[in-house]
Amino acid sequence: MNDLLDKLKKYRERDWSYDSGRIFSSMCTNPLDEALEAHQMYTDVNALDSKIFPSAKRLESEVIRKISALYSSTHAGGYITSGGTEGNIYALWLARKLRDKGEKVIAPISAHYSMQKACDLQQLKLIQTTLNDQYKAEVEDINEQTDKETIAIVATVGTTALGKIDPIREIAEIAEDAGCFLHVDASFGGFVLPFIKNAPPWDFEIESVSSITSDPHKMGLTPIPSGVLLVRDHSWIDELRMDIPYLDQTSATLLGTRPGASIASTWMALNLLDSNNYGRIVRRCMKLTRQLAEGIRGISDLRLVTEPELNLVSFTSNTSDVSQLRVALERRRWLVSLNSQPESVRLVVMPHHREEHIRSFLNDLRECVRELS
Ligand code: PLP
């Protein structure tokens, strides 16, 4: 037994650690200690079975109420998911159920690839629309593609590649005219936008936003997995409710057996981090993002793809191949990822980053650029 644990420990030691500040490729981070403790306390809790574990049901209702309020609603319903992918699949499942005909889903090309999974699984036809020169959804294209066969439009606040915020208000007008479902994927932005100044409207405040998915396990400082799926009207969820004959209960979630740990940790994080604390963490990430962007602007070979709106920075090089830059950075123990559209280096600035990490990264980046040019 001890040998096996030692072996596991050794495997783990070979993994990268967020604490090093050298991971810029991930939208996840270290969870709060208390959220981790809550997670551990609930590892054996199956949220499907509220007869055995009524506390999970109670915590989940509290979480949904709290997040609904954060997203400008008093009557939203929802549940704790495993993350954005599940939230996106569920939203389209519900959209199809609420609208009895049509099979088209309109989503800008910048939508997360889980939208392709969601459509493929449910045999929906995904129409990918174009972006404007700011890399946001091109509203006119969505308008042209939307018709009576459209069951849902999907928009993103905090696109995976560039952290861009789609113009939800304009897209909502199209959804309203077409009478179709509007799903907002806020997997990344959902725990950033409520805490920054001058954020554009994006949540249930806009009448025709039908559902929102957001991820505590990204900027919400909880352990993996935890996501939240919210729908405007809590009664919609009942459309997907089924009897569980062997438990004498019902289920309206995508998964059957579900981790109570995700619920408990999200409950803990939300209760611990009142808006002020979240705000402080988010603002620090945004400040570091600006410093990083400024530093990159100062390297003559490099060019920002776009001005950062959230805590993501992407850049390209006038002379070097970005994949070579990534390799050179990794040789110096920095983990970054690459975007394909447009080809660029992608950096996510997370709560595990500090000013010294940004400075040290920029120094190494300058050297890599010099080395490659
Ligand atoms: N949606 C967006 C915008 C994302 O950025 C991501 C992941 O990065 C997802 C959905 C999928 O989230 P998950 O990997 O938690 O399922």
Q: How would you briefly describe this protein structure?
A:
This protein is of the alpha/beta class.
Describe this structure in words.
Helices cover 39% and strands 17% of the residues. With 373 residues, the protein is an alpha/beta fold. The chain has two domains: 16-30 and 275-372, Aspartate Aminotransferase, domain 1 (Alpha-Beta Complex), CATH 3.90.1150; 33-272, Type I PLP-dependent aspartate aminotransferase-like (Major domain) (Aspartate Aminotransferase, domain 2, 3-Layer(aba) Sandwich). The strands form three sheets. It has a seven-stranded mixed β-sheet with strand order 1-7-6-5-4-2-3, sandwiched between helices. It has a four-stranded antiparallel β-sheet with strand order 10-11-13-12. β12 and β13 form a beta hairpin. α2 (33-41) runs antiparallel to α9 (260-272), α10 (275-297) runs parallel beside α12 (355-372) and α11 (322-331) crosses α12 (355-372). It is globular. The mean pLDDT is 97. The structure holds pyridoxal-5'-phosphate (PLP). Pyridoxal-5'-phosphate is lined by residues 27, 83-85, 112, 114, 156, 158, 160, 185, 187-188, 215, 227. The modification N6-(pyridoxal phosphate)lysine is found at residue 218.
